[in-house]
């Protein structure tokens, strides 16, 4: 991920505002496209004063992103983008879509509001989980993997430790380049970073790694990890707290667990290409056991979604403050390539709460891709680079879920087939038989999505 630092040169004394949350669901870019095609009757704007009055008095909550904008915010926009731009924005202020802000400034209303809050130092706006990144192309590219483990005593870690290049020799050169080139690269961190604590009594498999191995994430190009899983608590509260401290010390964003419920439920936001993207995570697992502690008002733990009410509130809040929400659930049944009705029910609740993409894990094998309404759902990415014992696992299929957000705001879903073999995960060529086998298998299990030979995913008509 390429970080950027920039400030707004504003020659105005801004007043402080209290940020008022508002659960507004964004109207998507397709709506604005239809409005433009139908040439809606715009408001006639006389001058800048009229433009400000129109925006402040006529805008729907959706149009201003639910933010408490006022004259000082409009002063910033005017100063940065000019009077004509603000007058043009105002001419659409009675329409539901906020996309005109992006069309004319190159930034969504959520990003403009973030810029304003950062410039004025509004105290009630949290910046600790917002990360600004540069992008190389027009598309915003986000890559996601399944389970990754650097756990002590397992075959993959032992293999890595015997390679001159360490972790970089555990992935094919072209796959490593793909991971590092993504604007946002996310893994499921399926273990604890700790040398302390005791393994949970009665749990069949427990995984931990020395905190120093957190540096491997940067070598792989990782920008964010999910810790909402059933192994981050393998060494109890001590192991979990060490894990969170380790990730914080490495400046590695994480989602899905915390020192209490307040932290565990917080999304991470990325600002890229003028858009604001929220990522939030929770675990359904365990469904019948209770090894992994759930975060509460006073206890550290993971955010759980077996009963999804709290997590759906998280998604709704993220949707009110971002252009896109990507939901990462840890769910399903291990070893089962068929997703279950429990996953479908949870997916429905996530979609209704505002999820734009759902990318699942936990099953240790690939599950297929479906569409629910217009939301792509990767039910499980399975293992990516993962073993559970000192014996090297048999070869398995895996892959990357890739989400591309185009300049016009369209979400493009892709699957990049990979294969794990003898300690190395490799990118497959679309001429490889294994590549075709993976695509054919996923297509045979899907009733609503189609993956073509290039890995592009479309909704079946």
The helix tally amounts to 14
Name of the CATH class of the largest domain: Alpha Beta
CATH architecture of the largest domain: 4-Layer Sandwich
CATH topology of the largest domain: Purple Acid Phosphatase, chain A, domain 2
Organism: Pseudobutyrivibrio xylanivorans DSM 14809
Family: Belongs to the CapA family.
Pfam family, one: PGA_cap
Protein name: Poly-gamma-glutamate synthesis protein (Capsule biosynthesis protein)
Write the layout of secondary structure elements.
Blueprint: E1 2-3, H1 29-37, H2 48-58, H3 71-81, H4 83-90, H5 99-105, H6 109-120, E2 130-134, E3 140-148, H7 155-161, H8 173-181, E4 184-189, E5 192-193, E6 208-209, H9 215-220, E7 224-226, H10 236-249, E8 254-255, E9 257-258, H11 261-264, E10 268-272, E11 275-283, E12 301-302, H12 309-320, E13 324-330, H13 341-353, E14 357-359, E15 367-372, E16 375-380, E17 383-385, E18 396-405, E19 411-421, E20 424-427, H14 433-445, E21 449-451, E22 456-459
Helix pairs in contact: 2-4, 3-4
Pfam family, one: PGA_cap
Family: Belongs to the CapA family.
Protein name: Poly-gamma-glutamate synthesis protein (Capsule biosynthesis protein)
What structural keywords apply?
461 residues, alpha/beta, Purple Acid Phosphatase, chain A, domain 2, 2 domains, 8-stranded mixed beta sheet, 23% strand, globular
What would your notes on this structure say?
- The chain is of the alpha/beta class and 461 residues long.
- The protein folds into two domains: 79 residues, no CATH class; 330 residues, Purple Acid Phosphatase, chain A, domain 2 (4-Layer Sandwich), CATH 3.60.21.10.
- Helix content is 30%, strand content 23%.
- It is built from 14 helices and 22 strands.
- Strands 3, 4, 7, 8, 17, 18, 19, 20, 21 and 22 form a ten-stranded mixed beta sheet that branches.
- Helix 2 runs parallel beside helix 4.
- The chain is globular and about 75 Å long.
- The protein starts with a strand and ends with a strand.
